[in-house]
Amino acid sequence: MPDKMGPVNLGDALASFADIYSPRIVGRVNDYDVRIAHAKGEHVWHVHEHTDEFFLVLEGRFDVSLRDPGGRERTVVLQKGEMFVVPKGTEHKPSSPGGAILMFEPRGTSSTGDRHEGEIPDHVESTTGHYAEGLGRSSSRVAEELRRLGATAEVREMPESTRTATDAAAAVGCAVAQIVKSLVFRSVVSDEPVLVLVSGADRVDEALLAQVVGEAVEQATGKFVRERTGYAIGGVPPVGHAQPVVTYLDEHLLDHALVWAAAGTPRAVFCIAPAELVRITSARVVAVARA
Ligand code: 5CA
């Protein structure tokens, strides 16, 4: 639960975990939890005997199959922005091609109901919900991580966009070469994120990067970036990710006394000496960029 009063950004909260059908508690309304979950694939037929269940689709699509008392089945298809309430005592089975939902449930309600049918699949967790961590704004998470790492850099929220290296250079009034791009690649065989910190004036040569990584790499998709780092493209920071990420830093960044990196959102940046950036990221310094 958030320990301070303040807004909970549901996009940030969803980006902070990747588990499927594993609800996170993001707030409370009287004795109800507000829960969010990623959905993909089939859930399990189950029943909540004593409570209705409220669903709001935040992303993608979410379907709820229902059985009437006579055993007849129908499926309610919900798109982003649509809500639906499953009445108490109704056997139902959610499924999704990929999506995210918000639910209201009395505290202690099990995600698989008072009873369920058959085995619970591995990708469904039977839980009364986990308390979400790091619900503050993405930039606060980065600021906290900088402090934890002993860096003195301050996160600055800019009035203008810092989404791209050009935007960021204009916003802070530095050279594009002093902007740190935090680029996420995917190692094709291991399917792991590879973070490359590179000057805003340069491009990563994927063949050179593949040599240092030891296997082929490709540019990550937006979804992969969000799932593995917890941040959206345009705000990906060099530290403070959802999981440890192998990090490389291109040597051209060492040409500057100070550089500016993204701090979790497309408006937040921090300024740091390149050597200090190497220290806090434990990055391996490599030559993988070309102007
Ligand atoms: N906030 C600035 C730095 S202060 C920033 O994040 N710049 S960046 O260069 O690190 O992030 C933008 C990068 O995201 C682009 O250079 C590009 O490599 C990547 N990107 C942009 N759009 C996509 C996309 N659709 N799919 C994958 N990667 C993308």
Shape-level CATH architecture of the largest domain: Alpha-Beta Complex
CATH topology of the largest domain: YbaK protein
Termini distance? 45 Å
Largest sheet: 8 strands, mixed
Helicity range? 10-25%
The CATH homologous superfamily of the largest domain is named YbaK/aminoacyl-tRNA synthetase-associated domain
User: What are the segments in which pLDDT stays under 50 over at least 5 consecutive residues?
Assistant: none
- Total strand segments: 19
Return the average pLDDT rounded to an integer. 93
Global outline = elongated
Query: Which ligands occur here?
Result: 5'-O-(N-(L-cysteinyl)-sulfamoyl)adenosine
Going by helix content, strand content and strand pairing, the class is alpha+beta
Strand content: 35-45%
Number of domains: 2
Discrete helix count: 6
User: In angstroms, what is the radius of gyration?
Assistant: 22 Å
Oligomer: single chain
What's the CATH class of the largest domain, please?
Alpha Beta
Order of secondary-structure elements? HEEEEEEEEEHEHEEEHEHEEEHEE
Task: Reconstruct the topology from this structure.
Layout: H1 10-15, E1 24-29, E2 32-42, E3 46-47, E4 53-67, E5 73-79, E6 83-86, E7 91-106, E8 115-116, E9 130-131, H2 138-148, E10 155-157, H3 165-172, E11 179-187, E12 193-199, E13 203-204, H4 206-213, E14 217-219, H5 222-229, E15 246-250, E16 259-262, E17 268-272, H6 274-281, E18 284-286, E19 289-290
Parallel strand pairs: 1-9, 11-16, 12-15, 15-18
Antiparallel strand pairs: 1-2, 2-7, 3-8, 4-5, 4-6, 4-7, 10-17, 11-12, 11-14, 13-19, 16-17
The protein binds 5'-O-(N-(L-cysteinyl)-sulfamoyl)adenosine (5CA).
